[in-house]
Amino acid sequence: MLINTKTKLCGIIGYPLEHSLSPAIHNVLAEYYKINAVFLAFPILDAKGAIAAMKSLGIIEWTITMPLKEKVIPYLDVIERQSKELGNVNTIINQNGKLKGYNTDIDGIRLSLKGLRIKNKPVLLLGAGGAAKTVAYVVYKAGGKLHILNRDLILARKLAKLYQAKYGDLQDVGHKIKEINPYLIINATPVGMGKLRGKSLVPKGALQSNMIIFDLIYNPKETKLIKDAKSRQCRTINGRTMFLGQAARQFKLWSGLPAPWKIIEHAFDINLKEVK
Q1: Mean pLDDT over all residues of the chain?
Q2: 91-95 and 98-102: which strand pairing?
Q3: pLDDT tens-place string over residues 246-257
Q4: pLDDT, tens only, 119-177
Q5: What is the pLDDT of residues 41-60, one digit of tens each?
Q6: Which of 109, 63, 81, 92 is nearest to 245 (CA)?
Q7: What span, in angstroms and rounded, lies between the C-alpha atoms of 212 and 182?
Q8: Does the annotation mark 48 as catalytic?
Q9: What residue ranges define each of the domains in the chain, with the CATH number in brackets?
Q10: How far apart are CA 106 and CA 10, in angstroms?
């Protein structure tokens, strides 16, 4: 693609960004549609400065990742209802200087859980951080009976209070799973990736074939939790669909065009670098 004086700029901000696939996905889509735009990564922690740059440089979209999803909110002009309810955004669209905030992670999680009958069924959520908060919001809106287990009980209690959930710590997870008998188990912790690759919070023996296991991690493609779940004949979902679903809506927001699923799947797969 030829970059010239009419090229529009989009990007992702937050820290760290070394393993982000957002530039690959958005640039492939821009090339597919012949859009004169480029999507770059900016590893920064300055929310106020990023917003000032967006306005002064005419940047048309920011993708927001941790730890800026809440910090950018005071600088926005408009926030969509579900993002306001959740309390964070992962996308900012600049419409002639008016900044609008969205959370497309919600869309990615809903897409991942599409077809599951969560209403009135026990859902076990592992974790209480940023990703877990979005999952809890979606499960609550779908009518699931939420149980939250987290290392930090204070965070677990705070999140549980927001979504009428039960909560506990990560001691004796296998016993707690037996008591809860969850329809769906969701891992929203980093256990299974990076330095915690090859580990799982869930004992293999606690998994039953009637359970559905959703791990938000997409790198590696199969975490220990997913491998254990498959060996126990559980239905499994990894983080790939969630990531692609949120990216597809982001692209639609800044470009006005749909993201062809086969295009973004291919871009994701060829750019995914599994950390050994």
Answers
A1: 95
A2: antiparallel
A3: 999 999 999 999
A4: 999 999 999 998 999 999 999 999 999 999 999 999 999 999 999 999 999 999 999 99
A5: 999 999 999 999 999 999 99
A6: 109
A7: 8
A8: no
A9: 8-103+241-271 (3.40.50.10860), 107-238 (3.40.50.720)
A10: 21
Distance, CA of 42 to CA of 228 (rounded, Å): 37
CA angle 102–104–106, rounded 5-degree value: 110
Of 34, 48, 69, 199, catalytic: 69
Burial of 25 (0-12, 13-18, 19+ CB in 10 A): buried
Q: Is the peptide bond before 258 cis (omega within 30 degrees of 0)?
A: no
Tally DSSP H helices, then E strands, for the chain.
10, 12
Q: What is the largest CA-CA distance in the chain?
A: 62
Q: Which two tokens stand for residue 123?
A: 């859902």
Say which amino acid occupies 84.
Answer: K
Per the CB < 8 A criterion, the answer to whether 236 and 230 are in contact is yes
Q: Pull the structure tokens for residue 29.
A: 């889509």
Helix, strand, coil proportions of the chain in percent (round to 5)? 40, 20, 40
How far is the C-alpha of 275 from the C-alpha of 18, rounded, in Å? 11
